[in-house]
From TrEMBL, chain A:
<feature type="domain" description="ABC transmembrane type-1">
    <location>
        <begin position="75"/>
        <end position="264"/>
    </location>
</feature>
<dbReference type="GO" id="GO:0015833">
    <property type="term" value="P:peptide transport"/>
</dbReference>
<feature type="transmembrane region" description="Helical">
    <location>
        <begin position="115"/>
        <end position="135"/>
    </location>
</feature>
<feature type="transmembrane region" description="Helical">
    <location>
        <begin position="12"/>
        <end position="34"/>
    </location>
</feature>
<keyword id="KW-0813">Transport</keyword>
<dbReference type="InterPro" id="IPR003439">
    <property type="entry name" value="ABC_transporter-like_ATP-bd"/>
</dbReference>
<keyword id="KW-0067">ATP-binding</keyword>
Automatic annotation (TrEMBL), chain B:
<dbReference type="InterPro" id="IPR003593">
    <property type="entry name" value="AAA+_ATPase"/>
</dbReference>
<dbReference type="InterPro" id="IPR027417">
    <property type="entry name" value="P-loop_NTPase"/>
</dbReference>
<comment type="similarity">
    <text>Belongs to the ABC transporter superfamily.</text>
</comment>
<feature type="domain" description="ABC transporter">
    <location>
        <begin position="6"/>
        <end position="256"/>
    </location>
</feature>
<dbReference type="InterPro" id="IPR017871">
    <property type="entry name" value="ABC_transporter-like_CS"/>
</dbReference>
<dbReference type="Pfam" id="PF08352">
    <property type="entry name" value="oligo_HPY"/>
</dbReference>
<dbReference type="InterPro" id="IPR050319">
    <property type="entry name" value="ABC_transp_ATP-bind"/>
</dbReference>
From TrEMBL, chain C:
<keyword id="KW-0813">Transport</keyword>
<feature type="transmembrane region" description="Helical">
    <location>
        <begin position="131"/>
        <end position="159"/>
    </location>
</feature>
<keyword id="KW-1133">Transmembrane helix</keyword>
<keyword id="KW-0812">Transmembrane</keyword>
<feature type="transmembrane region" description="Helical">
    <location>
        <begin position="236"/>
        <end position="259"/>
    </location>
</feature>
<dbReference type="InterPro" id="IPR035906">
    <property type="entry name" value="MetI-like_sf"/>
</dbReference>
<dbReference type="Pfam" id="PF00528">
    <property type="entry name" value="BPD_transp_1"/>
</dbReference>
Amino acid sequence: MTNFIRLIARNRLAAFGGIMLVLLVLLCLITPWLPLDDPNITSPENRLKPPLSAGHLLGTDALGRDILSRLLWGTRVSLAVGIAASLVAAFFGSLIGIVAGYFGGRTDNTMMRGIDMLMAFPYILLALAIVAVLGPGLMNALYAIAIVNIPFFARNIRGVTVGIAHREFIDAARLSGKGHIRILASEILPNVLPVIVITMSTTVGWMILETAGLSFLGLGAQPPQADLGSMLGEGRRMMLNAPHVAVLPGLVIFLLVMSINLLGDGIRDALDPRLKSGALSRPAPFTHIRRRQVPPENGSAANALLDVQDLHTHFEVGRRTHRAVNGVSFTIRHNECLGLVGESGSGKSVTALSLLGLVASPPGVITEGRIALEGRDLLDLPHRSIRRIRGRNVAYVFQDPLSTLHPLFRVGHQLIEAIQQHQAIPRQEARELAVSLLDQVRIPNAERRADQYPHELSGGMRQRVGIAMALANNPQLIVADEPTTALDVTVQAQILALIQNLRETKGTSVLFITHDFGVVSQVCDRVAVMYAGRIVEIGPTADILDDPRHPYTQRLIDCVPRLGEPNNEPAAIPGLPPAADALPEGCAFADRCDLAEDACLRGDIALRATDSDRQVRCIKPLGLPTRQGVMQ
Amino acid sequence: MSKPLLEIRGLTRTFGGGRRWFGHDIPGVHAIQGIDLDVAQGETLGIVGESGCGKSSLARLLVGLDTPTAGQILFAGEDLQALRKKDRYALSRRLQYVFQDPLSSLNPRKRIRDILAAPLRHLRGLEGTALDRRLSELMEVVNLRPEFISRYPHEFSGGQAQRIGIARALAAEPKLLVLDEPVSALDVSIQAQVLKLLRRLKDEFDLTYLFISHDLSVVEAISDRIAVMYFGRIIEQAPSRRLFHSPAHPYTRLLLDSAPVPGGPPIRAESGESELPDPLAPPPGCSFAPRCPKAEPDCRQAVPLLDTLGQRGDHRVACHHPIEGPWRRLDTQEVNETANE
Amino acid sequence: MIRYTLRRLLMTFPVLLGLSVIVFLIMSLIPGDPAQAILGSYATPENLEQLRADLGLNLPLPQQYLVWLGNILQGDLGRSYTLNRPVLDEVLERFSATLILAGTSLVLCTIVGVTAGIVSAIRQYGWGDRIITLLVLVGISVPAFWLGMLMIMYFSVGLRWFPASGMTAAYGGGGILDVLHHLVLPAIALAVVAAGVIARLTRSNMLEVLRQDYIRTARAKGLGEHRVVLRHAFKVALVNLIPVIGVQAGFVIGGAVYIETVFQWPGIGRMLVNAISTRDLLLVQGGVLVVAAAYVLFNLMADLFQHWLDPRIQA
């Protein structure tokens, strides 16, 4: 709770709104004790006095009543009616929403058809109809506004409830022996409550406006009782000769509603967990680069296609810095496939996305390093040049083809777009090329498939489209970020075969990111193992798999169950990888490694060559083949 | 042979279907089609299949999160549906479920204490100090530190969250655990930890497991017996070693051929389209026939039934032309092994 | 698409039917005896009974509804006793005036709101975003009727740029230019709130869409940022915005009630308010029915448009 208030206070606008609202509410609360004239006493001799008259700070209205006094009393009424209406609407609306969303099926259908029916009326119209039936009056206006807002709550809350009701923890609660009522009260409600609060805080202002509107039309508060709306309505008649009578109540409504809206936005932001992580920020087209020094050009890698040196990519969230990529160096030669292996959070995907500045920024920042493509440092190039490299020299294949293909464009269109971005050819020609690309990735009926949308294709077909799109401009390098992880094993086999085949026929280099050693050994010439944002070992695939030098590599291989070897019990690695915002000094694996000694915990451990083409980041690398060694 | 703990007979689940006001009638989708399966007390039965084969639907039917369209499930000789009518918590005291996604199966707004206490309270009727004692026992059993009990789920890693999920399932003191892809969402190093824990718990509490996964190597590592599912049916079942040694169904062989093994021989990919059949218009005969390299005309006519293969009676396959002899890639593997030694 | 259109059209009938039931029920809930109201307090019991029988008030409620519905389907909405003319004629005449006002406003608020929302999303946390966010906040907090009054005071009375009331000039008016001249102030006053809401939702929708994986794919293809934002991101945001605009249309039609009162626009909103205060309930009923039916049809079109943009949506 204190955390919540702190979050609101940090938001300056929300705090301003909150303070204003508190002042207004306080003023309303103490109104009965203030030395004010009775708001309803008329004195015709004092009519329409301008503001700042003696005894009437804000002047008087057409019947000589004190405007300041009427304003304060009126605000009390408006505020009370607005809050009451939103409480009523929130209660009934949420109840309907939760019940409909949780039970689903016929209950849901019946209830929501009714709600839809109410929503088929334009908003105010229904309120007018209700007032027409009940007759004008403040309470009736309150009911009318509350009723017309029930559908709004019901719909919102139902949507959220449906999302929660299908989560596994609801099933789990059912299996724990909880009945429907218990689940609604103790599992669903706590998760829906923030949404109810958000919806309420964003609608109170609106409801005050609406009740004021009905009063303005003469259908709400009836004389002599006054709320802000009816004062405004009365003032309208003398708008021209005594503008203050109408302007002042309007101004108070405006300030009241604005302060509520400001605070409401603050509450929404504070309760919406996505904002805390900065996830709602718009990712910039290019990752921010903030390099203090540039590593010198490395002569040894001159003939490499891609040479990455000492790459650092950090995520800056609030005051914390998550060092996702923490000094990664590797090279890829022409027509080579390098595997980047690691567990989740090891920084392998961030490394891949950093190459062409595709890491979401904010919060991502590239703080150090050099990424040389055929000798040109990509981190030094202007955005326009990077954009020319994206998709032409270096192309990406992403993990989940359903979310990475645009859902509303036909696949053919998406391919044509990729082609025409980099090749100045007419559309018809581009289309033919697109169809032939689909053919190349062995999509049957390519011509017809080109006119389909991604959701009409199976997972495997979609990933083939993703690969076809990467091939569109014959890139030198394809970065494949877990391209088969979301696929079934038989489909994965086909996609891997396809990638192999294309590599042989087109001579493309591939950076293949995966967590699966099995996949690595199928497609990669060399492999780099990542742990806590760094490469801990790099070398030819077969050598590393047969004879790992780094204890982490060794143990990672050992914990994979191996098909056809049921007796080879996988050996677990105890503990967890370190958090990326609190990396230890020395070797990040040291506290999980049973070979660690004091020296492992000190200083920076360099990646050093052990054999001609292998490097390892360990002060006491394993020397001997230890495939049978299952250590516990 | 003693009576099996769980007997599944002709289990079928159809989704959707029915009439519409306008347009064609909607045909139903058979998620599960007439499954027969026995699980013996104390064994681990692995169920393997790719996405959409119905393995999760089967799991939900068993634990009572869903109701079968047809068929029967007997648990220790008692009919589960009848049992459930008498006492709606009867199922949950006998069978429990471990979910795939450890974090989404824990309510983010509840402390671990409340999550674990629910089954103890509602299914076992524990209160007060007895409840507290049982809670700390459970935490110890799954290797979690006692102070974790007052934390919220988001403070845990995937592996720890999965331990809590397992503890919750154990709290009901079930005889059988249905584990639905319990390690698929975890990193390999954590996966091994959880598998190890599951093995220990099974011995400690005399449990029976139904272990569902898409990952052949994981299933092989933990199961005594394995059933392979394709398109809502079981197409092959056999003791684990036998299945991997001489798989008889072409689909099982395809699965094995496709799975990459670190340092293993190259995998083989199907040449054609590997599309699942359209569930709204299933092919006549064997549902694998359109993809099968060995399909004959009779495969496209009659649905093959699960039939016993060989004399021992523990290897059953639903194929008109089962393949005999050992699996080839296993051969090369063995050659490699001996070469290394 | 054709199948979907047909299905959707068919689904509209139950909604219209339900609508009529609600209106009928609301009207029959009104306390008091219509016969008494018509004949006044000096009516004899025999006269009252006769009129009740004539009006069908002695029939059971469902039967009354069917009679009522039959009349409506034949275009008979009754006679307004205050205006002494058929309700349908009055309602249609007034509704066309409202359509001009609300339609202009809706176009205005959509264009302004969507543009502001996109600019705000692209320049997130920049000066443009801050200014727009502030304007949006003012827009959704200001009472439209008050804003209308301020506009009259400043632009009509003060600067004399635009007329303060009515739809046409009293003498020699009625041309398109004349109506447009009268339309400017009320249309703007009516559009302000909806523009604020649309801008806000456009911004949050665009931000949401811009974080999606397919936007990263578009950038990885090397597409320019304009294409990424205006084609790839906006197309998805638009699909999400169509229902929002549909809801806003309801708000604009509703808000017309205030604006018509302030600007003396001869629309259906003002007619309804007058009818309610004079308790001319047949007029209220006719007005509500026609506007609600029109709104249902508008939402039907919005739905079809959305389906056309997004092939994933199934009936």
